[in-house]
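> call design_seq(struct)
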């Protein structure tokens, strides 16, 4: 039998369910529209590059991002001396995320504006579907650069072991203890501190202090200089995104024991 009390209960229950639904929907909307609610840390040493013809004026740039996907700042520079801006030219950038796309911009790039955009990974370490472009000025792209790699590189910090070799087949073992600076300099470059150890030899009195270092994007340079023997070896190369493998594409020995040169490989222990 129809009951007025039952009708009243039905109306009240429906109202409660509707209120709960609106409340939950409101929470979801807030999380979606408020980028700070899901912001991830992007602080680190980044490299952005493309081999597309559109990027021939600026094939790669690197430097520091600081902050989160909701609000970041940074300092970038060219990685190539042949690019339209010199490596020593610092480009200050800022960025944020809207509707899942992170956009980073920098003004006054040879009179133009740099724009980098893409989908930031959940861990804040890379972009997918990324593009970058320069509009206006001497560096202006004809079209945005595609096929872009945008990657954060973990610090070169820890104990490394490996070897240097030269074209004659000589091989020398190398141990290094390195620490990368937590923040970049005013040009967006990071530095290394630490020491290197070589087997007993007349060229170096181990351990030797690291000097004249630079880390930017996925590349590095460092020098081991012995003030007693006046020998020094400078190595440069690339490293893996996780910071575990240093590939020395070239090292050069100068001083009484030189000249000599070659390649090397160091692996984090």
């Amino acid at each position: 039998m129809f009951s007025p009390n039952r009708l009243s209960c039905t109306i009240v229950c429906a109202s409660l369910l509707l209120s709960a639904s609106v409340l939950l929907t409101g929470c979801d909307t807030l999380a979606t529209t408020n980028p700070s609610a899901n912001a991830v840390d992007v602080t680190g040493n980044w490299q952005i590059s493309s081999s597309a013809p559109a990027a021939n004026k600026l094939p790669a740039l690197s430097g520091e991002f600081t902050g989160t996907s909701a609000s970041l700042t940074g300092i970038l520079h060219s990685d190539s001396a042949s690019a339209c801006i010199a490596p020593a030219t610092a480009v200050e950038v800022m960025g944020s995320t809207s509707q899942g796309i992170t956009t980073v911009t920098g003004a006054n790039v040879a009179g133009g504006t740099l724009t980098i955009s893409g989908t930031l990974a959940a861990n804040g370490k890379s972009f997918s579907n990324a593009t970058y472009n320069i509009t206006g000025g001497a560096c202006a792209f004809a079209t945005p650069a595609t096929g872009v790699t945008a990657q954060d590189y973990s610090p070169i910090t820890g104990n490394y072991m490996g070897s240097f070799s030269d074209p004659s087949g000589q091989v020398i073992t190398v141990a290094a203890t390195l620490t990368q600076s937590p923040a970049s300099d005013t040009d967006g470059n990071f530095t290394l501190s630490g020491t290197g150890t070589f087997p007993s030899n007349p060229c170096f009195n181990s351990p030797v202090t690291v000097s004249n270092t630079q880390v930017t994007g996925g590349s590095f340079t460092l020098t081991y200089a012995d003030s007693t023997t006046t020998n020094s070896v400078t190595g440069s190369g690339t490293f893996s995104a996780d910071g575990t493998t240093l590939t020395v594409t070239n090292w050069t020995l100068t001083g009484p024991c030189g000249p000599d040169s070659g390649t090397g490989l160091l692996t984090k222990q």
